[in-house]
Amino acid sequence: MSTKFYDTNGLLNLLDEAFSDEFICSSKTLEEIEHIKVSDRKDQNIKYRARKLSRLLDINKYKYEIVIPNNEIFETINEFQLENTPDNIIMSCAYYYNKNIKPIVFISDDICCKVIARNIFGLNVESVNNNAEEEYRGFKEVVLNESEMSYFYGNLEKNLYELLINEYLVVRNINKEIVDKFRWDGTQYLPIKFGSIKSFNFGTIKPYDGDIFQQFALNSLFTNQVTMLKGAAGTGKSYLALGFLFYLLEKHKIDKIIVFCNTVATANSAKLGFYPGSKDEKLLDSSIGNMLSAKLGGLLAVEQLIQENKLLLLPMSDIRGFDTTGMNAGIYITEAQNMDINLMKLALQRIGDDCICIIDGDYKTQVDMNQYAGNNNGMRRMSEVFRGQDFYGEIELQNIYRSRISKIADEMWGD
After folding, report:
1. Do the Cβ atoms of 25 and 11 come closer than 8 Å?
2. Those residues with Cβ within 8 angstroms of residue 65's Cβ, 6 or more apart along the chain or in another chain
3. What is the pTM of this model?
């Protein structure tokens, strides 16, 4: 059985699991992990994983072997006419070990690394978990040297990176800097250029600090009839969704906004019991009312929109038999992680061809009832079924833009 040789990507994805057996890595991987821990360009999730991996490497120092690049390793890179990038150094270390010491299998989830390791270095290559489907984020990232970039730009009509329709591509140079962004439309890679939109209720709506994932989200909202926005609290899901819907409403591109909501109490919290009042009063006293009030400047603004028939709040308990056909509406399914497959199916079947739909939620960390978790999660199943359709887009937002407290609290993951 071949020994596993992990690249940086593979170790960061596996964490504890990597240490179940002895493995090999390059000293360049250790350098990259240290760089990620302190980088201002990395999101909090990956920095957290890098810190955790550093602790695991310290605790399990006898479980792995380190290959330090030598002259032969750098000569191999030159022989294959590659550049001395961190990824190429790591793969050349794997090639050296496989050739001179004992057979290895190169483990990575990086698309470009797998292609180069297999086709140029001739290594046996596997993903982190060949039996598990790769988590779909709505985008892929590739790091290209000058020759690879030249070939890509000369072949934009070829789906070189096997994207689904309406999936996005982030192109980085060898310094990991973003140089371009594309969407695959089924026939070619289209460049993504996006500025801002303006709303009376929301002001100027634009990607925060140029966030590329928020750019993808806004591009999908303009491009597709249905868009799913995923991500942790504070990544901008509701800001982008509501901002876009109110932009359409004010431009008379839609006649009303309909919010489908499943008002589930937050997991592990105490329930307050019965709320008095009408349907709208009860909903406005719940999490959906709190969210809308915060985004629109207060409860009175929300109530006025309801009275003007520009906003309709519809609990999932009342959704059966409802049909939006002919309403020219923008449907917003919020906190969609709290829906099972049947409920999500029922909600989607209410949406007419003259309407658009935005779904947001976080089924990784914010599911509030066990019945909505795992393979029974409606949002997860919708992603599996709809991705690749020519009217559907999906983006997992990556960066948290709330307070410093919120960013640090996001690191409170159980070990």
Report:
1. yes
2. 22, 23, 24, 25
3. 0.66
Query: Which tens digits make up the pLDDT trace of 350-402?
Result: 999 999 999 999 887 655 456 665 677 888 899 999 999 999 999 999 888 86
Cα distances (Å, whole numbers) of residue 252 to 89, 279, 295, 297, 328: 56, 27, 20, 22, 10
> Phi and psi (nearest 5°) for 9?
-60, -45
Mean pLDDT estimate for the chain: 85
**Which residues fall within 8 angstroms of residue 116, CB to CB, at 6 or more apart?**
82, 87, 88, 91
The pLDDT of residue 403 is above 80: no
Q: For 117-149, how does the pLDDT look when each residue is reduced to its tens digit (9 = 90+)?
A: 998 999 999 988 654 455 789 999 998 988 889
CA distances, 114 to each of 36, 109, 367 (Å): 21, 7, 34
Q: On the CB side of 334, how many CA atoms lie within 13 Å of its CA?
A: 27
H helices present in 354-400, as ranges: 378-386
3-state DSSP assignment of residue 31: helix
- Residue 379, C-beta contacts closer than 8 angstroms, at least 6 positions apart: 228, 230, 336, 337, 339, 344, 359, 361, 363
